[in-house]
Write a structure and sequence with these properties.
Elements: E1 5-12, H1 13-29, E2 33-39, E3 50-54, H2 64-81, E4 85-89, H3 91-100, E5 107-111, H4 115-119, H5 123-140, E6 145-149, H6 152-159, E7 169-171, E8 193-198, H7 207-219, E9 224-229, H8 242-250, E10 254-258, H9 263-268, E11 272-275, H10 285-292, E12 297-300, H11 305-308, E13 315-318, H12 323-334, H13 337-354, H14 357-380
Parallel strand pairs: 1-2, 1-4, 2-3, 4-5, 5-6, 6-7, 8-9, 8-11, 9-10, 11-12, 12-13
Length: 381
């Protein structure tokens, strides 16, 4: 007897591999055949139990004729594959699934953050965000759909004043972390204090703010350096320009190392993890990974970041867009090794107790069961 299909929708196969491969394992454990529809870069070519369907989504494009083509392709995939359940990951797949109107299939709408739609002020971008919000609210009226979010602010944005049974809203602990892979190591001894940032180089991440904070501290004579791991995201409308990246490189004590594959190794050579986000996060994976490695966290008071970091317990929270406050927090941690150790240990404990891949997998499985139960109930009625 064939297994029911669980169809995941994502923009990129590499994004599914880096953040959500554990969902494929969870799906298999729940008895599903796992199918992923995303743009094919070869990232999933050698993973048993995952079948990829190439859908060449363009993440940064909102051109109507391209959206129309994507919707038609998605409808064709759904008609051909006949999935028992569809799980859309992130806003663009959510929007496409909503526009495809596949209401005869149970659906999970997983908001993993609102990205530039949450921070941009351009009228067209705000209109797109409003339209997507309306689409999602309309689709959530269907009892066979459930909502998955990584912070409460995104839940409020998605639901608004419309009534939605709380049993159909699931709070995910981000993408979860494998704490056997991300392990604690002693912080570096000797040399400067190293502040680490792991992120895509897009404006919403606030990397320019930590560059300025470290510049201030070095001007004071602090022995501190900033190490940035990540590349510019060329398809993101909020990408940092090559000219600005060049200006960062010109600052003494600022190192850009590009994309790293050994993130655990990156944190091994740092003292402090920083992500001064301007907003748009779901629950930042870089914070979870740094916490799992026992590093103290410095972040902003934005949704997702402030949901995970506990001020003065697992790290320090500063006002968004405030490089002076960020410098104060880094100065405090740079000068107090005992405080860094205490916050880092508490950060690791918080991950272990509620933010692992196992925790995230269990929440996803609950969402799948809820959507499927609603479908069964409607069929019985």
């Amino acid at each position: 007897m064939s297994r029911p299909k669980l169809l995941f929708l994502a923009t990129e196969d590499w994004f599914f591999r880096s953040h959500f491969l554990f969902l494929a394992r969870q799906a298999a454990a729940e008895g599903y055949e796992c199918v992923v529809a995303a743009r094919d870069s070869g990232a999933l070519a050698h993973f048993d139990g995952v079948r990829l369907i190439d859908l060449p989504f363009a993440r940064g494009s909102m051109r109507p004729w391209e959206l129309g083509s994507h919707i038609a392709q998605l409808r064709a995939v759904i008609a051909r594959e006949r999935p028992a359940l569809i799980h859309a990951i992130a806003l663009k797949p959510i929007g496409l699934l909503a526009l495809a109107q596949a209401r005869d299939v149970p659906r999970v709408f997983a908001v993993t953050g609102r990205g530039y739609l949450a921070t941009a002020r351009a009228p067209l971008t705000r209109l797109i965000g409003w339209r997507l919000q309306r689409l999602l609210r309309r689709e959530l009226i269907d009892a066979c759909s459930v909502l998955m979010v990584e912070n409460s602010a995104d839940g409020d944005w998605a639901v608004g004043a419309a009534p939605l049974d709380s049993s159909r809203i699931f709070l995910m602990p981000g993408a979860g972390v494998d704490t056997d892979v991300f392990t604690v190591s002693p912080e570096p001894s000797g040399g400067p204090i190293v502040v680490g940032v792991v992120t895509r180089l897009i404006r919403s991440k606030g990397v320019d703010l930590v560059v300025e904070a470290v510049r201030r501290l070095r001007a004071e004579g602090a022995d501190i350096v900033l190490r940035i791991a990540g590349d510019a995201d060329e398809e993101n409308p909020g990408r940092v320009s090559a000219e600005e990246i060049a200006r960062w490189r010109a600052h003494e004590g600022v190192e850009l190392v590009g994309r790293v594959t050994d993130v655990n190794g990156f944190w091994r050579h740092t003292h402090i993890a920083c992500l001064p986000s301007r907003g748009g996060e779901g629950l930042a994976r870089s914070l979870l990974e740094a916490a799992a490695c026992g590093r103290p966290l410095v972040t902003s008071d934005t949704p997702g970041c402030a949901d995970f970091v506990r001020h003065k317990e697992t790290g320090l929270i500063v006002r968004s867009e405030d490089s002076a406050a960020l410098a104060d927090a880094l100065r405090l941690l740079a000068g107090d090794g005992a405080l860094r150790a205490a916050l880092g240990a508490a950060a690791r404990k918080r991950v272990v107790e509620g933010y692992t891949e196992a925790h995230a997998g269990r929440v996803a499985a609950q969402a799948w069961r809820r959507a499927m139960a609603q479908r069964a109930g409607r069929g019985a009625g």
